[in-house]
Amino acid sequence: MSPRRARRMDPMMGKGRRTEPPRPVEDALRGSERLESWPDGDWKVRQVSGAGSDKLYRCPGCDHEIRPGLPHVVSWPAWSGGEGERRHWHTACWRKRVDRGPGRSRY
Ligand SMILES: [Zn+2]
């Protein structure tokens, strides 16, 4: 039961079955998720490469489009139910978000 043994590829043993199912893309993205504290609360922020997506998003910071393939961030409130309020931002716009001052909505 050495962990090294499992890593070795043995063509005879591996025949007909796979040891590990392929990981969904979502799992890989989850790895770069982090919690950020801002004056308006805690936010989950995920860095996305944009690669593999052909969706066009609109950045709430500058109201411009985020082109497919452009690295950007996805953020949502860290409080309960916040997952439903995910927004795609240009990385720079997210950073400058609070500079817009109070009185603006959080998007
Ligand atoms: Zn922007």
The CATH topology: first zn-finger domain of poly(adp-ribose) polymerase-1
Highest CATH level, the class: Alpha Beta
If you average the pLDDT, what whole number results?
Answer: 79
Distance between the termini: 52 Å
Helix content: 10-25%
**Structural class determined from secondary elements:** alpha+beta
Tell me the number of strands. 6
Shape: extended
Work out the strand percent: 25-35%
Gyration radius, to the nearest Å? 20 Å
Count of helix runs: 3
Taken in chain order, the helices and strands follow as HHEEEEEEH
The molecules bound to the chains, other than polymers, are: zinc ion
- Please give the CATH architecture: 2-Layer Sandwich
The parts where pLDDT drops under 50 for at least 5 residues are none
* Total number of distinct structural domains: 1
* Strand arrangement, major sheet: 1-2-5-6
